[in-house]
Amino acid sequence: MNLKKSPISDSAKARTGIEGFDEITVGGLPRGRTTLLSGGPGSGKTIFALQFLVRGACDFNEPGIFVAFEETVERLATNAHGFGWELVELQRRNKLCLIDAQPTPDLIQSGTFDLGGLLASLGAQIKAMGARRIVFDALDIFLTLLPDAGSKRQEVYRLHRWLLDNKVTALITSKSGGEEGNSFTFMQFMVDCAVTLNHRVELGVSQRNLRVQKFRGSSFDENESPFVIGRGGFDVAITRMLGRVDVVVSNERVTSGVKRLDTMLGGGYYRGACVLITGMPGTAKTTLSGAFAEAACRRGERTMFVGFDSDGTEVVRNLSSVGIRLDRYLKNGVLRMISARTITGSAETLLVRIKALAKEHRAHCLVIDPVSTLSRSGNELTAHNVAERLIDWSKAAGVTLVCTSLIDEMNGQTEDGSKLHISTLADTWIHLNYLVQAGERNRGLAIIKSRGMAHSNQVRELILSDAGVTLTDIYAAGGEVLMGTMRWERESAERVANEVAEVAGKLKRVSLDAEEAVLEVRAKSLQTELIAKKVEKTLLVRTTASRKGELSHGRIRMRELRGADVAKRGQT
Amino acid sequence: MKKLQKFRFVLYVAAETQNSLLAATNLNALCREHLPGLHEIEIVDVFKKPERALADRIFMTPLLIRTAPSPPQRVIGTLSQPERLLQALGLRPAAQ
User: Fold this and answer.
1) Residue B35: CATH number of its domain
2) String of b and e for A34-72 (b: at least 16 CB within 10 Å)?
3) Is residue B94 part of a domain?
4) pLDDT at A93 over 60
5) From the CA of A114, how many Å to the nearest CA of chain B?
6) Contacts of residue B20 in chain A, CB cutoff 8 Å?
7) Residues A488-536 pLDDT 10s
8) Is pTM beyond 0.90 here?
């Protein structure tokens, strides 16, 4: 037993291995019981049945027996080969047994008969190979041979009893309704699980649906689920069921390819997020998604670019004009361009194809340009669900998804996003628009929302040049928002004004410097003058003193000369 | 139609079911009446020999195969419509 708490691993169910179907039935077909698969011609009954056996034999180690009432074994094997199922090889390994039980055309009928022979053979075969699964394909063909309603019913009942006794998981396919109506209804009541397939065309677009009608003792998704028969067989579209394990989210950021946009987003997109880029035609949605693709390739991440508008080669050429070089990544195989311009089919088909291709390419990053193609004529009803599933799938697979979406001016759609209402599902929504001003159209970029990350609230101008894609601040001041040439003019005018002011400042400074120098010189001369005065003053004092001394000295000398020597000593 | 060609039949039956018993009885009666001394009947029970049933592609019972004269001819059912059966086995001209 699987220890994981997944509702898928249920021992009472036999997994079909059919993408989506096991989720709808919460585990697969009822183990050891009988399931009736009905549908009109070409609805995919045989393919479903074959896939049930092939997957059982290959993936779940449950050998199976296929009883073909309608087709030859050779044709079955050829058809299955188209889906990559090697029936002959499986038969050789004793994992599968194909029994051709077509009534031979030259068969003559005389009186009633029963299925006894077949059941005896099958019983032996089940024992011999340890079969756990059995398919009766187109049982209605056998029933038409029986003469009356009573014996038909009897044979159906005999088969049912036999299946219960043998404890194999059985799948009976049958055309619905028709002349075998009675026994068909009887079968529907008898079986434990009934699945119907239908195939209709709406507005020229083929839509296939699968519905589980009943499932005794189990819950199941009762709604019609669209499905596609793809390269690998059935692919049933499912929306997330309650109780399914949430996917692991990542905190890792991946670059948008535009440095300044990363800054606006606080580091880039989240890995595994769904990014929506909306805008009118020509607002550089493709360019922005191309920048993302290039950046992803540069990191060496496998990337797929699905272009509905133009061919891959055209996209590569056009993007190279703005410095986004994708050709080398195409060459080394990291990038895969899918040109889906003329692809027709339901939104389901597109989704399945995209999923299959992405799986094949092992893509980590996916660009869908534009995703609004999904809601092309005939698909309006399903497109929203498809978009939801696309996002759900990409998240589950950890694929970072960048979708562009056209907002058409002519349709008068507002910023409310596209018809798909994908905008509510997207994690990051970047809107591009034009600002028409002074005879110019300039591209503006704004982040409308970005879950789980701080992001800039500002509109930026998106500039495309041969050097690449970048953003610049728009000129926003005084209630004005200017872009393009007007922004440039306003900015250059400001630059000139700044320069003038700067020069004036410089001039003023020089003159102040000069004045300062003059004053300094004056201060210095005054100081010198002061010193001179001081010197003069000291000199004056000293001269005065010496003159006094000289005077008295002279008197003494005179006395001496005159001969008056009495007071000689006392004088000095 | 005077050739003394021997008729060989293999009758596949599913044990002792009603249809199978009826077929065996009808075949015996038919042979006694139309091919006295010119027939061989082998009865195979598919429940006892399922491998042979599978190999011979016997899916509905009872089933009668005329192995000789060739080509082999298969008839399913209880063999309870003698006219049709005789025609199929080449014991009565188809023109009638």
Assistant:
1) 3.40.30.10
2) bbbbbbbeebbbbbbbbbbbbbbbbeeebbbbbbbbbbe
3) no
4) yes
5) 5
6) 116
7) 888 888 888 999 999 999 999 999 999 999 999 999 999 999 999 999 9
8) no
